[in-house]
Hints:
- With 247 residues, this protein is of the alpha/beta class.
- Helices cover 34% and strands 26% of the residues.
- It contains seven helices and eleven strands.
- Helix 1 packs parallel to helix 2.
- It starts with a strand and ends in a 5-residue tail after the last strand.
- Bound molecules: manganese (II) ion.
Amino acid sequence: MRRTVFIADLHLSDDTPDLNRLFAQALRGWENDTDALYILGDLFEAWLGDDMPDKAAQDAAAALKAFSAHTPVYFICGNRDFLLGKKYAAAAGMTLLPETEELVLYGKTCLISHGDEMCTDDTSYQHFRRVMRNQAVQKILLSLPQKWRRKIAADMRAASKKRKREIGMGSISDVTQKGVCQALSRHPQAEILIHGHTHRPAVHRHTCGSRTVTRYVLPDWHDGRGGFLSVLEKGCEILPLVLHEAV
Ligand code: MN
């Protein structure tokens, strides 16, 4: 049975050796029966520019490139790796997609995105997001010396940690009904919404006007464990991933 695989929020870095191995293992597991792999953002914990990938990103590129020889790989950037660009995508055999994309899978219309744009209650984050997604701002950031970019990334991570402590898993960090309906309003055909970002894997039903849509939230990867959404003709399921010992 053929399927399409969706993942997000792996947050890979040189500090996540178990997750890096789990990702390589997962790609091997998807080799033979997968029509396409969609990575919906935050594949990496941080991205300082395609000119300075860490070891984890280099290894991921090699594994993805090999995988992409038989299965197409698509990438939507997240709030951590929004600076990931064409050069790395080419090295990893990935096709870059815009922030939101509509696709038809096995007869069903799906809307996919990272998901942070739907967290409309977090107004300070939405402001930050608008600035950071500005092309001119990104161009300036990427033209800074590598040392400065390392410093900015460290500062941003510290600020994000502080923010997480403040808001925790409170509802402000989740997507809102308003955000979901706004996203769907631009895609009148969509029956399924798939995103990550919130680290709250679940299946929700939403009614926006006269439509009812199913929303799948992808699992984040942490503590050596991961997961993915498998979309098949007969339906969708969120499945766990664990590392096989001693391979
Ligand atoms: Mn995210």
